[in-house]
Amino acid sequence: MFGVAVVVLGVGVLVYAYKSIKPPPSKICGTPNGPPVKSPRIKLSDGRNLAFRERGVPRENAKYKLILVHGFDSSKDIYLPLSQEVMNELGVCVLTFDRAGYGESDPNPERSVKSEAFDIQELADQLHLGPKFYLIGVSIGTYPVWACLKYIPHRLAGVTLVVPVINFWWPSFPSELANKVFKQQLIRDQMKLSIAHHAPSLLYWWLTQKWFPYSSIMERHPILFNKRDVETVKQMSQVPNPDEYKIRQQGIYESLTRDIMVHFGKWDFDPMELQNPFPNNEVSVHLWEGYADKLVPFELQRYVAKKLPWIQYHEVSDGGHLLIHEKVLCEAIFREVLLGEEPSI
Q1: First to last CA, the chain
Q2: Cα angle: 282, vertex 288, 294; to 5 degrees
Q3: In 10 A of CB 225, how many CB atoms?
């Protein structure tokens, strides 16, 4: 009798573990059980759909075409404090898109650092942006930008990485430095990142279990925001985003979970070993970091900038992680990459 009970208990534990680890099927937009499609989309060469949004000057009249890549738990509806007047003055059409699995874009079970670059290239081609376009990536949305610098630099007219999230396992980091900064993260984030890198199949379970704190950014932990970020959040809250609910509507596995898995997994290249793809300075590349960014350690960002002297590094002394959402800084970032204006910060 006892033996039977042990077997039953063991089977129950295995079933629970399997159900906890295995994510449910995604609710793909436009399918019978999925959310409706309300945004314009393009169909990629592999059959997936990519949703996009346009702002600023109409594409056919724009002097500059710029693709902006959203970060973690965000979408094509990212808060961007650029007025229509400023975009008209700059002559820029700003294209944002839902990255794979986010919002109204189909999931990509084969998503990788490299695949994100070619999603961007297909978006540019199908929307007829021309042989070259400008590119800005924000936070974790910068791994597609690193991929573009690696795989399609010939398509880029200007590039900016804003508070790019660091992968602690990039080979060029001195282990002593990377370990020191890694241990400064909250325990929950050390666990999340370690699982993402070493045991990605367990990441969905970690992000959905209720026993332990699992992710400071998903839990909106106040430790992530410095004084300047808090003020920015207040400004952002005054401009409601009625489509915010769409960000995770297809499920968190193909959006948030896979985003973390890809970024903190093993890359096909080390960004710090990239050779300058623009040896004649025909294209400028910029990197913006906040000294007081509590999500991305400035020490590692400085190291990246030192290893890649062809990238122009800007550090905002009291800046946090929400630089792109500050009106003055957002405009400065756009003016710099499009017009080459020196930022006064």
Answers
A1: 75
A2: 160
A3: 20
Q: Note the pLDDT tens digit of each residue in 231-261.
A: 999 999 988 888 899 999 999 999 999 999 9
C-alpha dist (Å) from residue 305 to 154, 168, 209:
22, 15, 37
Element (H, E) at 50: strand 49-56
Q: In what order do the strands lie in the sheet with 311-316?
A: 41-43, 49-56, 92-97, 64-69, 133-138, 156-162, 285-290, 311-316
User: Tokens 């500050």 belong to which residue?
Assistant: 326
**CA–CA gap between residue 26 and residue 249 (Å, rounded):** 9
What is the rounded distance in angstroms from the CA atom of residue 108 to the CA atom of residue 100?
Answer: 6
Residue 256 has a CB neighbour count (10 Å cut-off) of 23
- Phi/psi for 170 (5° steps) reads -60, 130
Give the span between the Cα atoms of 90 and 92, in whole angstroms. 5
Closest to 157 measured CA to CA, from 182, 130, 139, 176 = 130
Q: Give the pair of three-digit tokens for residue 132.
A: 């070259």
The whole-number pLDDT of residue 343 equals: 81
Using the predicted structure, report yes or no on whether residue 214 has a pLDDT greater than 90. Answer: no
The identity of residue 212, as a single letter, is: F
pLDDT band with cut points at 50, 70 and 90 for residue 20 = low
Q: Could you give the C-alpha distances from 309 to 117, 274, 275, 278, 328, in angstroms and in order?
A: 23, 11, 10, 12, 26
